[in-house]
Amino acid sequence: MQSIKNISSINDKVLPVILCGGEGTRLWPLSRKSFPKQFLSINNLNEESLLQNTQKRLAGIKDLIEPILICNSAHRFIVAEQMREINVNPKSIMLEPFGRNTAPAILLAAFKSLETENNPHLLILSSDHQIKNEENFRDMIEIGKSYSNDNKLVTFGVVPTSPETGYGYIKSDKAFDLKNIKGIKISEFIEKPNLKKAKELVKDRCFTWNSGIFLFKAKTIIDEIKKLSPEIYKACEKTFSNSYKDFDFQRLDEQSFEDCPNISIDNAIMENTKKGIVIPLDAEWSDMGSWKSVWENSDKDGDGNFSKGRVLSEKTHNCFLSSESKLLVSLGINNLVVIDTDDVTLVADKNESESLKKLVKDLQVRNIKEAVSHKRVYRPWGFYLSIAEDSRFQVKIIHVKPGAKLSLQMHHHRSEHWVVVKGTAKVEINNEITILSENESTYIPLGSKHRLTNPGKIPLEIIEIQSGSYVGEDDIVRFEDLYGRKN
Fold it and tell me: What is the CATH number assigned to the segment(s) 376-480?
């Protein structure tokens, strides 16, 4: 195992651990496996993504240091780019080979934190929450520090505003008092209740919603996991020892990580520990877990409608209306979610949007690609948008960031035409370099080694026309890649 400092003095530094996994299928079709909700600006409150807002709302917390982020390999460049956009240089971006829930992720982050810090507070955050009253949230973190310093495991229970069936509940030993905030010993955790039970729980001030936000010392959570879940500790210790650096990322060892139990920190530790403390959080929190909750937390017009994009509504009430490009017109509808993207149109009763998770799973079983992938696909150098395709051809718009460079590559089954529509392109084909300006084009024969670079200071956009016997994304042989990607 990599070396960990063993210094016992109190350190009040707060190290955020942001969990960036999850597919967000209840917010399909905007949120998909290829680009889930945590990376989206999901409503009109600001331009930042949910992940970016998760980090930005921490500004003002005393002794705050740079975060550790945990995501899967497919999203690593998205995470890195979104942090760069808000001028954050993470302490680490750790890459899970597959999901193993929150307990292993948190333990691995705790191990990582002790490589460079002396037993910091770990502030565990989901990347897809919205908190409107950020000052209250930061105040609760400051209160939580005193309990964390006392080796308690602090969770933040959201003060309920309605009988929700989509959240778990936390029962404390005694009723909370918002005029005199204190940490209260946790009595038990309640799984998502039915509506009748939820109505009973919200009347009792011993109950709060389980936010999934935690604060504890790194060594405290390590010791508690080692004591209560030694199988998690053993597997994570081996995983961390066998992890390795990959450019700006830390890859977790796949073979040993597979031995980690797939279990949440609640089930593994919080339900069994005697150190659990809950602090009531009254900060206009939402987990943005359904279109209904997104609508509730969005700025709406006088008719209760949220609109984004080219939308015209008449005699429409309490709807969520979003169009990425086409004109969306609504007339005489109520309580609906209408989402129009480049490739999918969703029309759903707002109160039925919780059922989307099952619907998307059914689409995945039927191998319908729109269930998991957007037409716009993000890459470390920019993105591409597929605008037309058939079995033997595909047309894309390719957007390359200033100074960015695609891999040196070749294809076995297709040739390509490139037409520059914006910016300047540096094109390398079989070691010959050409500079192309707007409205100029080139041809890449099948089997040719080629590379595209944007040498300019503005984004480069080209139209790419692929033709051949096979135009799948896996027909790429990479020879060199600035970002360490392989075939």
Answer: 2.60.120.10
